[in-house]
Design goal:
By secondary structure, the chain is of the alpha+beta class. The chain has two domains: 2-49, no CATH class; 57-146. The chain has seven helices and five strands. The chain has helices at residues 38-49, 57-73, 75-86, 90-116, 119-126, 130-138, 142-146, and strands spanning 2-4, 6-8, 11-13, 17-22, 29-35. The strands form two sheets. A three-stranded mixed sheet has the order 1-5-4.
Length: 150
């Protein structure tokens, strides 16, 4: 069973208590989470409204690469966790984890491409073929990543 704390701006808070998380299919308690107080919510909103740190394109690409690497290493555990908390079958949650990995990878490719400004150099840096790079870019949602403001 997984137990998590109430987090505000990445830091644990005492919160208002605990809430059981149940698998909607079986009713089994699969974990507990900390609940927030009104003050916790105010603090979370204040923290969320602060200006985010300025990252260079290189830092963004490295952050996306690290995110993808960590998720890839734990993909089965994440899929199983999603199954427990959502009641979806494991096949579906594995698919969702794969979709997330694809999205992070596409964003990583795009950030790297913005740095190099050269598709062949980007493909070489990422260790993929130019054809693979084109295929992955073609699958990227244009409004979310390619056309997003910098």
């Amino acid at each position: 069973m997984i137990e998590t704390h109430c987090l505000v701006a990445g830091k644990p808070t005492a919160g208002a208590g605990r809430l059981e998380v149940r698998n909607p299919y079986s009713g089994e308690v699969v974990g507990t989470v900390g609940t927030a107080t009104a003050t916790d919510v105010d603090n979370a909103l204040h923290a969320a409204c602060k200006e985010p740190p300025k990252l260079t394109r290189f830092e963004r690409s490295q952050l996306l690469a690290r995110t993808r690497s960590l998720l890839e290493a734990q993909r089965e555990d994440v899929a199983r966790l999603m199954t427990h908390e959502s009641g979806l079958c494991l096949r579906e949650t594995r698919y969702e984890v794969g979709r997330t990995l694809d999205e992070v990878e596409r964003d990583y490719i795009i950030q790297t491409l913005k740095i190099t400004k050269d598709k062949k150099k980007t493909a070489d840096m990422l260790g993929i073929s130019l054809r693979t790079l084109y295929n992955r870019l073609a699958a990227a949602p244009q409004s979310k990543t390619v056309g997003a403001p910098e």
